[in-house]
Design brief:
It catalyses: L-aspartate 4-semialdehyde + pyruvate = (2S,4S)-4-hydroxy-2,3,4,5-tetrahydrodipicolinate + H2O + H(+). It is a single chain. The chain has 298 residues and is α/β, with parallel strands linked by helices. The protein has a single domain, classed as Alpha-Beta Barrel (TIM Barrel). The chain has 12 helices and 8 strands. It has an 8-stranded parallel β-barrel with strand order 1-2-3-4-5-6-7-8, surrounded by 5 helices. Helix 9 crosses helix 10. It is globular. The termini are far apart. 48% of the residues are buried.
């Protein structure tokens, strides 16, 4: 079953990549997490994005993680595959692979480190879309890439067939509101910032691609539904409850805190790839207390 891109909306989990303490990918737990998110009502999964440690896995591992997610989910939930790279040819290669194995869409990050111009960014995504027939969601996260794709460039890219949306991880509500206003109505704008997601959804965006949803999928699903359906009272209540954990999960670089939190819940073993290392012990109580406030642990 291939999902229509119309069904890619709502509460989307930016899924972690579980690893053993030695740093090997734990595919058994990966599959268990996919089952759990489906059971909890998550609307779609992003695999091998920033939260999935895409900078630390090899190209072959990136491809295998996409393939396993697509095959194991078996049409039960849309799979959005992380296919970004700072090399256009590598991004095209990954996107072709995602298309081949049956991913529903690709999440493609703004090229990092080599700092392309706005026209370079435009040409990068244009080439991907013209070479691969897979729906592409752009991903703007200047705090990670050091390159900020302007709203003007996004609007220009909406004219290219196959580019269906953007994950806006700027955390800038005013800027997101302008994107919602100025992009075509069928172009999907997703919040990529948990702290401001409810506000952006109330303004009309298509959902949230969330880190916090890794540990609270059912709660994030309720927040997305309330925000997108205009239930302001419920959205405010949920957002207030989630505010401390949204902040705590970024006390160190994502996904360090969220993997620690999942290990506290007994969902995963604690494993990372260098240069990421476990959460500093001085932050353990801070994250643990935020989890208690959010109802994760008691």
């Amino acid at each position: 079953m291939v999902f229509s891109t119309k069904k890619i909306s709502g509460s989307i989990v930016a899924l972690i990549t579980p690893m053993t303490p030695e740093g090997n990918i734990d595919y058994i737990t990966y599959k268990r997490l996919i089952d759990w998110h489906i059971e909890e009502g998550t609307d779609a999964l992003v695999v091998v994005g920033t939260t999935g440690e895409s900078p630390s896995v090899s190209m072959d591992e990136n491809a295998e993680l996409i393939k396993v997610a697509v095959e194991y989910s078996n049409g039960r939930i849309p799979i959005i595959s992380g296919v970004g790279a700072n090399s256009t040819s590598e991004a095209i290669h990954l996107t072709k692979f995602a298309k081949k194995v049956g991913a529903d869409a690709g999440l493609s990050v703004v090229p990092y480190y080599n700092k392309p111009s706005q026209d370079g960014i435009y040409q990068h995504f244009k080439n991907i879309a013209e070479n691969v027939d897979l729906p592409i969601i752009l991903y703007n996260v200047p705090g990670r890439t050091s390159v900020d794709m302007s709203n003007e460039t996004v609007i220009k890219l909406t004219e290219i067939p196959g580019i269906i949306g953007i994950k806006d991880a700027t955390g800038d509500i005013a800027r997101g509101a302008l994107l919602i206003r100025d992009c075509p109505s069928d172009f999907k704008i997703f919040s990529g910032d948990d702290s401001t997601a409810a506000a952006l959804m109330m303004l009309g965006c298509s959902g949230s691609i969330s880190v916090t949803a890794n540990i609270l999928p059912k709660t994030l699903k309720m927040l997305c539904d309330a925000s997108m359906q205009g239930d302001i009272k419920k959205a405010r209540e949920l957002n207030s409850m989630l505010a401390p954990i949204n902040k705590a999960l970024f006390i160190e670089a994502n996904p360090i805190p969220v993997k620690w939190a999942l290990s506290e819940l007994g969902m995963i073993s604690l494993g990372y790839r260098l240069p990421l290392i476990p959460l500093n012990e001085k932050y353990h109580n801070l994250v643990r207390n935020a989890m208690k406030l959010a109802g994760c642990i008691f």
